[in-house]
């Protein structure tokens, strides 16, 4: 370790990067925070004079810990009740684009994108994120994941085809999930305006206005994890989603409230019963329409939400 870099300085310099990597790997805010803390504790307690590149070394520690965590949780995922969605990451707006937050405000943080990453194997996910999001060279990625640079290049291109929703020439099958980047990507302002129109349509019970906002083939995913009532299958089409929300709004408690917030780098909604968060809603917007709605109601995934 370079003498000028104390444990505290390393933490300040690399925590945003490492959290960004871990969260995208796992889809869990709490697990990502735990793994980053574990990595820094290890560095603080271990003699690392042999380490030449601390940034790559920390990424390697975090990547391996993420793969271990995914491997141990794979059985739980197999028996998960209903759709699985990532834990929502709630963040304040950062209009000045501070470098410390730059890793957290990219399209690759969106719920739709994270769901596409779930299609990849653990190693594919690591290689893809290190190259596509963090801009690592193949030689660096090879050292982190323990494979040759040529192999990493092949893994990356296969993963990129899968995430783009394009067919892989070796199997001829398209991605199961819709591409996260199809169509023109709206600005934060356009997305925020559309979400405000969405909320207004819901709170006023204006079904016609809601139908105008939703694409005809929109999909709604609700993650209750078997802990609370949620739709165990995706809800498809604008009309069915409108009926779903009509039923939902009719059952709201008197102490219901909501606030607009950045959810996974995009405008979203946090809903409360009293002071308790009860769900977080994020969206996939394309061509000025809502194409995907993601509702996390699993209380285990809302423990970190304020």
UniProtKB/TrEMBL annotation:
Residues 10-75 form the RNA polymerase sigma-70 region domain. Residues 112-162 form the RNA polymerase sigma factor 70 region 4 type domain. One of its GO terms (biological process) is DNA-templated transcription initiation. One of its GO terms (molecular function) is DNA binding. InterPro entries: ECF_Sigma-70_Domain, NTF2-like_dom_sf, RNA_pol_sigma-70_dom, RNA_pol_sigma-70_ECF, RNA_pol_sigma70_r2, RNA_pol_sigma70_r4_t2, RNA_pol_sigma_r2, RNA_pol_sigma_r3/r4-like. Residues 163-190 are annotated as: Disordered. SUPFAM superfamilies: NTF2-like, Sigma2 domain of RNA polymerase sigma factors, Sigma3 and sigma4 domains of RNA polymerase sigma factors. NCBIfam families: PRK09636.1, sigma70-ECF, SigX4. Interacts transiently with the RNA polymerase catalytic core formed by RpoA, RpoB, RpoC and RpoZ (2 alpha, 1 beta, 1 beta' and 1 omega subunit) to form the RNA polymerase holoenzyme that can initiate transcription. This is RNA polymerase subunit sigma. It comes from Paenibacillus elgii. The lineage of its organism: Bacteria, Bacillati, Bacillota, Bacilli, Bacillales.
């Amino acid at each position: 370790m370079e003498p000028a870099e104390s444990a505290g300085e390393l933490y300040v310099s690399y925590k945003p990067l490492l959290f960004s990597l871990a969260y995208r790997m796992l889809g869990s805010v709490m697990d990502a925070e735990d793994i980053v803390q574990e990595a820094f504790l290890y560095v603080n307690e271990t003699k690392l004079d042999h380490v030449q590149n601390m940034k790559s070394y920390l990424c390697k520690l975090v990547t391996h810990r993420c793969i271990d965590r995914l491997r141990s949780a794979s059985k739980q995922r197999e028996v998960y009740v209903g759709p699985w969605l990532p834990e929502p990451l709630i963040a304040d707006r950062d209009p000045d684009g501070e470098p410390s937050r730059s890793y957290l405000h990219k399209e690759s943080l969106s719920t739709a994108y994270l769901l596409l990453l779930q299609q990849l194997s653990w190693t594919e996910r690591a290689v893809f994120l290190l190259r596509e999001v963090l801009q690592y060279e193949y030689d660096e990625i090879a050292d982190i994941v323990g494979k040759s640079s040529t192999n990493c290049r092949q893994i990356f291109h296969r993963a990129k085809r899968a995430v783009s929703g394009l067919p892989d020439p070796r199997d001829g099958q398209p991605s199961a999930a819709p591409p996260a980047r199809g169509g023109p990507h709206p600005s934060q302002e356009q997305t925020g305006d559309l979400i405000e129109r969405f909320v207004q349509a819901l709170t006023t019970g204006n079904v016609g206005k809601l139908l105008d906002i939703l694409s005809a083939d929109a999909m709604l995913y609700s993650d209750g994890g078997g802990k609370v009532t949620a739709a165990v299958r995706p809800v498809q089409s604008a009309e069915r989603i409108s009926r779903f929300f009509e039923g939902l709004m009719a059952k709201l408690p008197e102490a219901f409230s909501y606030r607009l917030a950045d959810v996974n780098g995009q405008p979203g909604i946090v809903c409360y019963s009293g002071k308790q968060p009860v769900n977080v809603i994020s969206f996939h917007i394309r061509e000025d329409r809502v194409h995907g709605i993601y509702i996390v109601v699993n209380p285990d995934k809302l423990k970190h939400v304020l």
